[in-house]
Amino acid sequence: MTYDTRAVQARLKELGLDPGPVDGAWGPRTRAAVIRFQTAKGITPDGIVGPITRTMLFGAAAAAPRPSESVPTEFPWLVEAARLRGLREVSGSPSSPIIMDWADDLGLAYEDDSVAWCGLFTAHAIRTGLPYADLPLNPLGARNWSQFGEPVTPQLGSVLVFWRVSKAGWQGHVGFYWAEDETHFHVLGGNQSDSVSVTRIARDRLLGARWPTGIDRPGITRRASPSGALISVNEA
Fold first, then answer.
1. Please, are residues 81 and 72 in contact by the beta-carbon 8 Å criterion?
2. DSSP character for 128?
3. Residues 6+ positions from 135 with CB-CB distance below 8 Å
């Protein structure tokens, strides 16, 4: 799978802007380096590598179509979420220190990773990529993400909120749009088979899709086979 965060970090490092380690992790040092670059170039300093910033960094070749598998750098929250694929909770005690650190960093009271952590994962990814974004009250509750940001049609990077057990109940699940097929959304989320993974969730379980306030919406949708293979991309 192709991610271009490392390329951005390497380019910023070449320019002497100190993005931190070239490790593919979208952290505060990388974001601060992007803001310094944008400020120097007269670009809106939002810390997001959108089409204008990417072209200024790499030249016109950066505007070439991206492969459908890539994670666009204008979605830094999705970059962080994708970087964590494969992370698993720890069976028994103690809990995964990584998952527990997310709760500590967010100032959330969280008992251990035997408690559903899809909302915690979503909050960590959003706060890492968009440190000034307002999270919903009690982000540990999956359905509370229905109040996050603004409503949007499902598209790459959007937060998808689903019902569980009963549509009229309180239980739910939350993750990020990764792709879709005829009958299911492919969701990148935490606590999916006790790990960060991409899983298929039926379309009729969707309660809503949400988008971070103030962030441009490229409107990218991706088609996948039922097995999960990405087969096409549409950028509206």
1. no
2. H
3. 106, 123, 126, 127, 148
CA dihedral 89, 90, 95, 101 (to 10 degrees): -40
Cβ atoms < 10 Å from Cβ of 151: 11
Per DSSP (E only), the strands in the chain are 150-151, 159-163, 172-180, 184-192, 195-202, 206-211, 220-224, 230-235
What does the pLDDT look like over 26-65, one tens digit per residue? 788 998 999 999 999 898 888 888 778 888 888 865 555 4
The set of residues, in sequence order, having a beta carbon less than 8 Å from that of 224 and lying 6+ positions away, is: 178, 179, 180, 181, 186, 230, 231
Cβ neighbours for 204, distance < 8 A, ≥ 6 positions apart: none
Phi-psi region of 126 (alpha: psi -120 to 50; beta: other; left: phi over 0): alpha
The model's pLDDT over 81-109, given as tens digits with 9 standing for 90+, comes to 998 999 999 877 788 999 999 999 999 99
Which single residue is written with the structure tokens 């994962």? 121
CA distances from 87 to 48, 67, 194, 207 (A): 25, 25, 9, 26
> What's the CA gap between 5 and 22, in Å, rounded?
8
Where do we find the tokens 């994670």? 71
Kindly state the DSSP code that residue 171 receives in the 8-state scheme. -
